[in-house]
């Protein structure tokens, strides 16, 4: 259970967060998005107990994070935007070092390390961390965040700057953890497609305030509606062009757009009755990018 009440973070008169309040009471992935400067990283650091808010209340899993941030750390796995590693260590030595910090036995450290490296498909041999690629370093940082099997994860831009294949692998890894239904994951990312794909609920921040919060279906209901594109062939489009919001022509094929089911039905009926042929109909939902554009900065 996460309970945040009127969280404010003030930096010399600038409100990085300005009264953020929300609750979350289940496991899964919770996305936090917004334009640069919206307050995402500030909120994640407060949720991790790394910085204290200027005012407000925050409870995570029954822990008062503001009064007792150290109590959260046993349950917390934190991944900052930059993978700052001890680059003279090798991977297993690095994970062992952090496992010891969390009080794990040598056998438990080996078990957890072997499992995580296998699941992350990470085989670095005996290379030092400074010799690894950016993608491999990110996987090591993720493994470090999970070495003590925390129940609460805070990930800031987990795939930032990575190649598409590594980004995809990390997204699939996050979804696999979600399916296990054991962890609550807070995720901030500029890759909005990734957020749409993996998150159960999404918060949109704007200038330190929460302006939207809900599932993708709920956000679509609030900030957009479905549209339909119809690919068709016809001799004379003028007979039904008033049914469409917009259309284009490429060769002998037209592509028309409508924004409601009644217009779609009317359009397809008129195309057919005039001797034309409908080739394909596709539905389109507003994306998170569309919503951010609509909300503005």
UniProtKB/TrEMBL annotation:
Keyword Glycosyltransferase set for record: no
Ranges where the ABC transporter domain occurs: 2-232
Q: Which UniProt keywords apply?
A: ATP-binding, Nucleotide-binding, Transport
User: Native species of this protein?
Assistant: Methanolacinia petrolearia (strain DSM 11571 / OCM 486 / SEBR 4847) (Methanoplanus petrolearius)
Please give the superkingdom of this protein's source. Answer: Archaea
One MF term from GO for this chain? ATP binding
CDD domains according to UniProt: ABC_DR_subfamily_A
| Alphabetized InterPro entries for the sequence | AAA+_ATPase, ABC_transporter-like_ATP-bd, ABC_transporter-like_CS, ABC_transporter_ATP-binding, DrrA1/2-like_C, P-loop_NTPase
Protein family (similarity comment): Belongs to the ABC transporter superfamily.
Matching Pfam families: ABC_tran (PF00005), DrrA1-3_C (PF13732)
Q: What is this protein called?
A: ABC transporter related protein
């Amino acid at each position: 259970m996460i309970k945040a009440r009127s969280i404010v973070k003030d930096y010399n008169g600038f409100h990085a967060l300005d009264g953020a309040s929300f609750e979350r009471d289940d496991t899964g992935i919770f996305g936090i998005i917004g334009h640069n400067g919206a307050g995402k990283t500030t909120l994640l650091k407060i949720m991790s107990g790394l910085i204290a808010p200027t005012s407000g209340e925050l409870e995570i899993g029954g822990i008062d994070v503001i009064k007792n941030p150290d109590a959260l750390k046993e349950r917390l796995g934190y991944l900052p935007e930059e993978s700052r590693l001890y680059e003279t260590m090798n991977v297993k030595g690095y994970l062992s070092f952090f496992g010891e910090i969390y009080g794990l036995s040598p056998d438990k450290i080996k078990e957890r390390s072997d499992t995580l490296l296998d699941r992350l498909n990470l085989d670095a041999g005996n290379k030092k961390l400074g010799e690894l690629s950016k993608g491999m370093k990110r996987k090591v940082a993720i493994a470090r965040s999970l070495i003590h099997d925390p129940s609460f994860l805070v990930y800031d831009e987990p795939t930032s700057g990575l190649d598409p294949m590594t980004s995809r692998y990390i997204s699939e890894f996050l979804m696999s953890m979600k399916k296990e239904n054991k962890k609550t994951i807070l995720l901030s990312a500029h890759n909005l497609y990734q957020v749409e794909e993996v998150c159960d609920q999404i918060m949109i921040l704007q200038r330190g305030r929460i302006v939207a919060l809900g599932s993708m279906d709920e956000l679509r209901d609030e900030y957009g509606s479905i549209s339909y594109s119809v690919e068709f062939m016809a001799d004379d489009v003028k007979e039904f062009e008033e049914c469409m919001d917009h259309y284009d022509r490429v060769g002998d094929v037209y592509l028309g757009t409508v924004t409601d089911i009644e217009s779609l039905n009317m359009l397809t009926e008129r195309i057919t009755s005039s001797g034309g042929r409908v080739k394909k109909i596709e539905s389109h939902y507003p994306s998170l990018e569309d919503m951010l554009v609509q909300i503005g900065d």
